[in-house]
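Hello again,

I reread your note about wanting to compare the complex against the isolated chains. To keep things tidy I'm splitting this into two emails, and this first one only covers the full assembly. Below are the input lines as submitted, including protein chains and any nucleic acid or small-molecule components. They are followed by the predicted structure of everything together. The single-chain runs will come separately.
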Amino acid sequence: MNGPNDLIEIRKKYHHGDLREHLLDAVRQLIEQYGPDGFSIAQACRHAGVSTAAPYKHFKDRHEIMRHVAHQALERMRDGMQRAADAYPAGSPERIMALGNVYVTFAKTEPGMFVVMFSLTTDHAQDEDLMTSGKACFDIVIGVVADHMGLARQSPEVAARAYALWCFVHGHSFLTLDGKASKIQTPLDETTIMALVGRALVPDQIAV
Amino acid sequence: MNGPNDLIEIRKKYHHGDLREHLLDAVRQLIEQYGPDGFSIAQACRHAGVSTAAPYKHFKDRHEIMRHVAHQALERMRDGMQRAADAYPAGSPERIMALGNVYVTFAKTEPGMFVVMFSLTTDHAQDEDLMTSGKACFDIVIGVVADHMGLARQSPEVAARAYALWCFVHGHSFLTLDGKASKIQTPLDETTIMALVGRALVPDQIAV
DNA sequence: TTGACTAAGTTAGGACCGCTTACATATGTA
DNA sequence: TACATATGTAAGCGGTCCTAACTTAGTCAA
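Full-complex prediction:
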């Protein structure tokens, strides 16, 4: 067939070769382009040059695809966080700033993925891979905060401070994405925000 | 007609009477029950006992309905925040705690609405009513923080601190909803969290 | 009271989507 | 080479959003 529909890529062979990964990538692109609710699996199939039934040889349903996409994105962000942590000496304020910066930058450059990662629409809380990835991210924060405070990773003070840091940065990322932060009449630039994070949430004189 | 389909309410008259409000309410209920992506306008029509074409006499499209639902929810939260602010004397720590508590409680009791309010799927950033409602919420925070710090509402310190507070509470609410907060191995109860908010974000010794 | 205008319903249907079933084709292995 | 399996296709069901054309009922001026 291959009529005048909007096929992006014309496949030569009957078998695709690596449809699974190609689909995940197409979905990622489409989500960034049209938003998590503005795209369709059928659209991704057209990108991959396969029929709309093909995905179901690789995935149970739409939600499973979304979970895999979210997982890949979370792993990508985890890599970024790890690299940021490795780039600065333990205990330095720049290290925490860099960590927060990865988060906010990810939200800005891949807003679609950010929303999908923290979406409640697909049942993420039940997905084991997603939760372990998320925990791995948080463990990085735990380690950095522990180094900074000079306490053990298991210390409840560290846990509380790390969680507070996560909440703050997550909230800031989300409100920025949402456009609410920009509409609010505060002349807060990114530097001020991150400075506030560094100074307000990890000073030694404030105990839990 | 009225065959054996799942009509909830049987209408007697040809005209509904107040379909517009009835639809918004049905959508709200369905979102809480099935999630923002698990419901359909058609389902809401069945609740209201009208045909699936009826909503388009009142709303442009699905997105406009979602925006109205989000707006109503935001106004409801604003009322709660205002009541919390009025319930405590200016400058008292309990006042800030109560304000944050309204936010978190709203997220917990109406998770569907919370997600819709801060959803990027429907183009909220363009909606004027939504943005003004959001700004009204933030103005309450501004006022409370200004009272607490003993500074003018227009002070940049107040703006920074209020925004930080908002970020923190929003992040905590979202992570709680997402299930990530509960899965993270931190024994942080709500009281500890809110205490951390009160102490870390609005102490006078930390300047911007 | 009547008759036109309008608001708010209806039915019918198109375009699209997710997903399933039955069938077709390629690939690896004995 | 023969068969089992993995991976594709075509066809179609039920559902969604939304539009077009029609119908009903309420309002208001003459």
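For quick reference: Residues 13-15, 40-42, 52-53, 55-56, 61-62 of chain A lie near DNA strand C (CB under 10 Å from a C1').

B.
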